[in-house]
Amino acid sequence: MSKYRDSIGKYLYCFILAPVFMILEACGEFILPYLNANVVDRGAANGDIEYILQNGLYMVLVAVVMLAGGVLGAYFAIKGSAHLASDVRGKTFRKIQEFSFANIDDFSTGSLITRITNDITQIQNFAQSLLRGCFRSPVMLIGAVCMSFALNPKLAAIICVVIPFLTLAIVLIIRSASPRYTQMQVTLDSLNNQINETITNERVIKSFVREENEKEKFAAVNSVLMKKSISALKMMILMQPISALAINITTLAVVWIAGKQIIIGDMAVGTLTAFITYLTQILTALNFLANIILQGTRAAASDRRISEVLTAEVNLTDDKAGKKDINIEKGEIEFRDVSFRYLKKNRENILNHISLQINAGEFIGIVGSTGSGKTSLISLIPRLYDADAGSVLIDGTDVRELSIKKLRDSVAVVLQKNTLFSGTISENLRWGKENASMEELLWACKVAHAEEFIHSFPRGFETELEQGGTNLSGGQRQRLCIARALLKRPKILILDDSTSAVDTATDAGIRKAFREELHGMTKIIIAQRINSVIDADQIVVMDEGRIEDVGTHDELIRRCTTYQEIYYSQKEA
């Protein structure tokens, strides 16, 4: 309940007024049949027009009060539940933003989407139903039972026989439905994962003409969700016919007994009509309460899934940082006997005993075969992950001792996957610096060799990009991402194979601009092409999670077999 306490406190008036107005409406529910019985039995039977008009006026006033109570109760219930859902959704989203890459690996993208949308919607629906029915239904139930006994205790005893059987049926339905809802939500995760993967990679799917294969995969997951949904929801379907059966059997018993009493004059027709109305209200109130409980079982499953996100331990925090106030001034990097693995249960490391010194302002190239650990190595610098053994130091301070915000403000990383967002080019670039001037945008784009193609667009920097920048070429996306990183004016710039899609001339131009414009900035470039790092101050050669050698191009070409193989194979190609 702690996750809802703040929201409930903030909108406490909604959570108080909604039940109050619904109780007001419920009171009218059992007053109206009583007034109607009086009109029939006393007014109509005796031809007393004045009595009929007087009670009719009372009924109109009660109906108006019920209308106002019902509308206002529904309004405050909707408002309170909507604010509750909004606050929890915001809290969950903010928690996800705190996640490290390792935390995100624990939850699939589709699962997080389901939790922050569908699961919270289930909680919202339950909160709304609870506010509208948690007091209204019991008041209606108790009021109708009391009025039934007041009208005819013998007939009311029939209700006391039916209620336990109906309650037992409801309990059995709820116990069966609860685990099925959990399974349904988990299957919905799989469906969202499938949708996310398919839509994100639509261009690849079309290029390989794999649409039919994706349709079959989606149909399979969709079919499983359908079966799980039917399995869960059919329990709710049982609720209505069971309730209807109980109402019909009880009504028949009441009419049978009451009919004899009417014949011998022990009961008036109006009283029978009112009694049947109360009977319907009692069973309807029970049914409504059962639906709330059933919704609650589904909301409880969703609540557990939301709690898993909110209570997830974020393994990258500032909690143990003892030097939060230190700013990165130079950009000197040192790896001291660093080992790392993504899955902590695995015995084999991705990185093994890495020791490396990078001086401030140096241009460092990193090369190696696929899977040699290049990306894993640079991911430890801005603390996208933490080392399992050893330490990574910047300016002589362990990165775990530094403020994450200050660390990442000083380190700019252009990852392998070039991510752009829907919006204009200038809006995307200003992710690097929110208030960057046009002069700063021009400078960054000039260094990244993006200025020329931006000006070729009719609207220049105000050109609208599609989500992911799909209306740009791969090389154009890479250059925009580099320009965006440069706008941060970081002390350390890391490019993870971020010029692979540009031609060699542009690649050479970017390196030249780096040498001329980025004095004092430590530059680390992971590259597949030797030419991209051939003039680096140091080139790090990696193989199977270890550093095989470090040196200049001339030094490595003489002594490092792995470097020689990469260089000559590319030269021959």
Radius of gyration (CA) equals 35 Å
Helix content: 55-70%
State mean pLDDT (0 to 100 scale). Answer: 83
The SS-based structural class is alpha/beta
Tell me the overall shape: elongated
Estimate the strand proportion: 5-15%
Count of beta strands: 12
Described by strand count, sense and barrel closure, the largest sheet is: 6 strands, mixed
Q: How many separate helices?
A: 19
Biggest sheet strand line-up: 6-9-10-3-11-12
Detailed description of the structure:
The protein has 573 residues and is α/β, with parallel strands linked by helices. The protein is 64% helix and 10% strand. The protein contains 19 helices and 12 strands. The strands form 3 sheets. A 6-stranded mixed sheet has the order 6-9-10-3-11-12. A 4-stranded antiparallel sheet has the order 2-1-4-5, with no helix packed on it. Strand 9 (492-496), helix 17 (504-517) and strand 10 (522-526) form a beta-alpha-beta unit. Helix 6 (136-151) packs antiparallel against helix 7, helix 7 (153-200) runs antiparallel to helix 9 (211-263) and helix 9 packs antiparallel against helix 10.
Set down the secondary structure blueprint.
Blueprint: H1 2-10, H2 12-46, H3 49-98, H4 101-106, H5 109-133, H6 136-151, H7 153-200, H8 202-207, H9 211-263, H10 269-310, E1 333-340, E2 351-358, E3 363-368, H11 374-379, E4 389-394, E5 397-398, H12 404-410, E6 411-414, E7 423-424, H13 425-429, H14 438-447, H15 451-455, E8 464-465, H16 474-486, E9 492-496, H17 504-517, E10 522-526, E11 538-543, E12 546-551, H18 553-559, H19 561-572
Parallel strand pairs: 3-10, 3-11, 6-9, 9-10
Antiparallel strand pairs: 1-2, 1-4, 4-5, 7-8, 11-12
Helix pairs in contact: 1-2, 1-3, 2-3, 2-6, 2-10, 3-5, 5-7, 5-10, 6-7, 6-10, 7-9, 7-10, 9-10, 14-16, 18-19
